[in-house]
Design a protein that fits this description.
Its main location: membrane. Keywords: Cell membrane, Membrane, Transmembrane, Transmembrane helix, Transport. The chain is α+β, with helices and mostly antiparallel strands. Helix content is about 50%, strand content about 10%. The protein is built from 13 helices and eight strands. The protein has a five-stranded antiparallel sheet, with no helix packed on it. A three-stranded mixed sheet has the order 3-4-7, with no helix packed on it. Strand 5 and strand 6 form a beta hairpin. The longest helix is centred in the N-terminal third of the chain and has 32 residues. It is elongated and about 120 Å long.
């Protein structure tokens, strides 16, 4: 029986180039896809591939680029002290900055889930990312100024310090050379001769500026003693315009108010007094015998000017703190996105099983967030290896060598001393340090896509 006998139409012959042959193709032809990729490929070739290849080539030539030196630039690079300083600082950056920023981002992300004004909090924390690194460096250069009147960091520290231990009333005051005053071990002064009840003593000091004198300061007067007390006067032994007699109270000389005076016997303070507006004081309630009069060091303590943030010791931690301020918002946003993707059923099940909030966070939240935390950490590590602008702007020229990093050293060698060969070798070395982290990141992304 044939198809004609049954009335069933015969099947059409398959086309030789149809799907059945395995040669069919869906989508545009390859040349069209290549055409659309061409601009991106040209961009990568001009701005990525060519600079890398040229840097490798240039690193094999001398500073002027006229003589082939082979690997001499790499040998010089690893025999320079500046390179090892920069490498040491990069190791400190890698060990500290990515971990600190990731932890800060995790804390901020968890906080945003527990506060009512989460959106405003995210905006405030993320806002530094909208500022250029150059501007951020300028901001923190001002924050770290040594003068408390200009630097915010030292202004806060000195405010707390002055609350706990106030500055002395006259930090620059001191006796004249040859005066009957001896300096004590703690920085104060004492009379060389002892005093007894009924005595009147004079204590001349110099080195006091008009700015240190209170507004109610009066002219110094001669002390008048009474039975059972030691009286005295502390004054500025300096006559403006010249003249006057040393260690004698002249008519134009002023007293030193608000100074603490102590009477000491057998190493114990038995009486204290504070000078008045005219510099006079009276130590009362004294028994018979001799006493040593002392001006304690608290009268002359220098004002605390805070920490030397931009000094050789603290310059690298100070810049890392600025880096934390800039990048904490970036870490917070990524980690917050990962937190929102965690199934709430897993967290509720852990709480139902009796887990505390800390146990739920440590045993459930953090393990589920580990892929996001790793992405943030590795990304920050890549950026830390290339850190340049914050170090360049914040570190003063006097301590830039102490804060040096590889990217800054590459720039200084290439454009400071104009040694393009050694600078290119440093660039290649920096690339070799960055590539493993990039490969790790790309492989991780591919595994997650599978």
């Amino acid at each position: 029986m044939t198809a004609a006998d049954t009335g069933t139409p015969a099947p059409e012959a398959e086309q030789p180039d149809g799907p059945a042959t395995g040669r069919g193709r869906l989508g545009p032809p390859p040349w069209l896809a290549l055409f659309f990729l061409l601009p991106a490929l040209l961009f990568l070739g001009i701005y990525v591939v060519y600079p890398i290849l040229f840097s490798v080539y240039r690193s094999l030539w001398d500073a002027a680029g006229t003589e082939f030196v082979g690997l001499d630039n790499y040998v010089r690079m690893f025999t320079r002290a500046d390179t090892f300083t920069a490498l040491r600082n990069n190791v400190i950056w890698i060990a500290v900055a990515p971990a600190v920023v990731t932890v800060a981002g995790l804390i901020f992300a968890v906080l945003t889930e527990r506060i009512r004004w989460a959106t405003a909090f995210k905006i405030v924390v993320f806002m530094p990312m909208a500022i250029s690194f150059l501007a951020s460096g300028v901001i923190f250069r001002l924050v770290y100024e040594q003068d408390p009147d200009r630097g915010l960091a030292n202004a806060a520290i000195t405010t707390v310090q002055d609350t706990i231990a106030p500055t002395g009333a006259y930090p620059g005051a001191n006796p004249r050379e040859g005066a009957a005053l001896e300096e004590t071990a703690g920085g104060g002064y004492r009379l060389a001769e002892p005093a007894a009840p009924g005595d009147a003593v004079t204590i001349p000091l110099v080195g006091v500026s008009d700015e240190d004198l209170p507004a109610d300061t009066e002219q110094a007067v001669e002390p008048r003693s009474a039975p059972g007390e030691v009286a005295g006067t502390v004054w500025v032994d300096f006559t403006r315009g010249g003249g006057g007699q040393e260690e004698a109270i002249d008519p134009s000389e002023t007293g030193l108010p608000a100074l603490r005076v102590e009477a000491v016997r057998d190493g114990q303070v038995v009486a204290t007094a504070t000078t008045g507006a005219d510099g006079t004081f009276a130590l009362t309630g004294l028994e018979g015998g001799e006493y040593t009069l002392r001006l304690p060091a608290s009268n002359f303590s220098e004002p605390y000017n805070g920490l030397t943030w931009l000094g050789p010791t603290l310059i690298t931690p100070s810049i890392i703190a600025a880096y934390l301020w800039v990048w904490a918002g970036f870490a917070m946003v990524l980690i917050a996105a990962g937190l929102s993707a965690i199934p709430r059923e897993a967290l509720e099940a852990a709480r139902v099983d009796g887990g505390t909030e800390w146990q739920v966070f440590r045993r459930v939240t953090v393990p589920l967030l580990s892929p996001v935390l790793m992405v943030v950490f590795v990304t920050l590590m890549i950026y830390v290896l290339k850190i340049f602008d914050l170090v360049f702007v914040i570190a003063p020229g006097s301590v830039r060598a102490d804060a040096n990093v590889l990217a800054l050293e590459m720039w200084q060698v290439s454009f400071g001393v104009n040694d393009q060969g050694l600078g290119s070798a440093l660039a290649v070395f920096l690339l070799l340090l960055v590539v493993p982290a990039m490969i790790f990141q790309i492989r991780r992304f591919r595994r997650e896509e599978r």
